[in-house]
Specification:
The chain has two domains: 173 residues, Aspartate Aminotransferase, domain 1, CATH 3.90.1150; 106 residues, 3-Layer(aba) Sandwich (Aspartate Aminotransferase, domain 2), CATH 3.40.640. It has eleven helices and 13 strands. The longest helix has 30 residues.
Length: 360
Amino acid sequence: MDFVLEKVYAIKKEEIPQYAKHLMLGGGTRGGPVLKRGKGCWVEDIDGKRYIDCTSQSWALYLGYANDEINKIIWEHSQNLTHVHQGFDTLPRFALAKKLAQIAPEKLNRVSFTVGGGPAVEAGMKIAIKNREGAQEFICLYDSYHGVTLGTMGASWVSTMTSGRFIGGARFNRVTRQFIRVPNPYCYRCPLELDPRSCELMCLKLLRITIEKGINGPTAAVILEPVQASGGQVAALKLIDLLEKGVLQNCRDMGDYLGSELNKLRGEFPQMGDVRQAGLHIGIEFVHDPVTKEPYGELLAEVRKVGFKNGIIFGVGGAAKNVLKIKPPLNITREETDEVLLRFRKSMIDAIEAEGRNRK
């Protein structure tokens, strides 16, 4: 091991506060373990405790920690180049642009690479304004998340308002743009209080009315995504290659199995008000009562906390912080999926008991 890494990994647990005081905290839900190494779906902290990670680290680890094939291609390419700025081109940049153009629908056949999701959304906003003369307004959903740059934080509920309380990002309202907002297509908790079986897609009608009559001038764009969350990528060309070679079928199979088993647990735990998913992207909405659907963020926080003790890492989402996210690597095995279910159920039992004690 290189001596620089030796010094890093030699930092003792009791010394961490002296280092941590110099670190500005980033986004996301804090309070997890200090991680040291990982492999596949499993990650280990500095105390040697192992966890099965149901976050895929904001989806940047779609194939898990330290994937051998991903690591190999990163190492091989690093022997030739590690970085060039945008003024120069490289063969991998050309190849990835062409591959993404082939995957994208119809006329979306040109790619601009940015440093993250927020800048990517901003780049799209610039193109939308440029391509539609006189258009300045953008539409987003009530509970959307599209980044925390000055250009995008106005479209992100987490940066402006959450559950009726203004938080840190609101102080930048004077220097960030304001967005036109429309209701989420949120059938479990319809913002229009309609029944999805008879509503005739009223949320879509409201979007159309807003575009046609609710804005003084042409709309530049509507910004939305099928799964509301953050995300990342690494070694994109190789990742796409591996996804196309069978990983997506595993995602479908394990997603169907995990979703089915989680829905069965709703009979045991009525606090699991809703289970919704797209493959292995799963959200479980916690409620006090399945009839009133009152958000139960306190229980979710307890599930996450005891989950660490039980060796499993969950994500947290939702405007009321009451949606537990389970999104393991797409190549998770059946045995590991069963382990997720086992540890989730135990965490539910432990959390409900702890929440009961807290209320006494």
